[in-house]
């Protein structure tokens, strides 16, 4: 299978735009899959209605209209919060209603690591019953530093020990949270444990981290994409264009959405870069 056939676009890049227009744009770019983004703190406000059966049916109707499919859901939240089990079970139910297998989520603060591991033991069993897989993701800021390095994620998998728990690795997150480590090397360590993968590039400024077109940042994606091409796992361009991270890694969401023209240009160039380095 051509690697691009496993590519999805994460809807975080369209933050602030109408979902119907966003999905039509994805289809016009020649991509067949979508990863809906419902990440706390990275997109607009979230409430329980966003994870309802009615909303799932609405999203399915939009996908059908544009002849798109979905395999993954971005649903980062603090997995150590007092209501984490109840809240994430709601997300698993929502994923199940969408026919989604993979729930991609960062974890939480390292101070709460024990709580996160215990909660994941409960949640992974629930996910397994629903035919879903929770894919924990390396954090990009200090709110989610319980899983910072690839080895952190592998250790959590070992402690939970459930086939319904895997990794979703994002080399772009490594740049801001563990700048002393090589994103490419981290990706190679993580990939054997991944069931899903995120791609985004990062530019490092004096005072912030921003997310440019693939190939214009500090990450060498060629060896990563070659390894990804040999593994039959889905992946998505996850580029929260509306936000940046401060030098201390804290995420800042812009007041206004990026223009659709900019979004289309960025995505087109990212797809072309993936095409070029996987030919």
UniProtKB/TrEMBL annotation:
Gene3D superfamilies: Divalent-metal-dependent TIM barrel enzymes. GO terms for molecular function: isomerase activity. The keyword Isomerase applies. Keywords: Isomerase. InterPro entries: IolE/XylAMocC-like, Xyl_isomerase-like_sf, Xyl_isomerase-like_TIM-brl. It holds the Pfam family AP_endonuc_2. Residues 25-238 form the Xylose isomerase-like TIM barrel domain. It comes from the Bacteria. This is Sugar phosphate isomerase/epimerase.
């Amino acid at each position: 299978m051509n690697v691009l056939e496993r590519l999805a676009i994460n809807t975080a890049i369209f933050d602030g735009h109408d979902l119907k227009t966003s999905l039509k744009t994805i289809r016009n770019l020649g991509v067949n899959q979508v990863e809906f983004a419902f990440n706390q703190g990275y997109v607009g406000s979230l409430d329980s209605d966003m994870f309802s059966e009615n909303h799932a049916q609405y999203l399915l109707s939009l996908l059908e209209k544009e002849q798109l499919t979905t395999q993954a859901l971005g649903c980062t939240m603090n997995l150590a919060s007092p209501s984490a089990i109840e809240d994430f079970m709601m997300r698993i139910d929502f994923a199940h209603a969408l026919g989604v297998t993979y729930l991609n989520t960062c974890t939480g603060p390292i101070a709460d690591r024990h709580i996160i591991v215990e909660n994941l033991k409960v949640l992974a069993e629930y996910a397994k019953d629903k035919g879903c897989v929770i894919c924990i993701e390396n954090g990009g800021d200090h709110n989610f530093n319980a899983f910072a390095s690839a080895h952190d994620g592998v250790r959590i998998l070992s402690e939970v020990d459930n086939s319904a728990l895997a990794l979703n690795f994002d080399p772009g997150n490594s740049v801001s949270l563990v700048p002393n480590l090589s994103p490419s090397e981290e990706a190679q360590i993580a990939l054997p444990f991944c069931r899903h993968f995120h791609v985004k590039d990062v530019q490092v400024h004096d005072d912030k981290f921003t997310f440019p077109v693939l190939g214009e940042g500090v990450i060498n994606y060629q060896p990563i994409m070659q390894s990804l091409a040999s593994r039959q796992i889905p992946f998505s361009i996850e580029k929260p264009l509306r936000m940046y991270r401060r030098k201390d890694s804290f995420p800042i969401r812009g007041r206004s959405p990026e223009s659709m023209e900019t979004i289309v240009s960025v995505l087109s160039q990212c797809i072309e870069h993936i095409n070029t380095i996987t030919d």
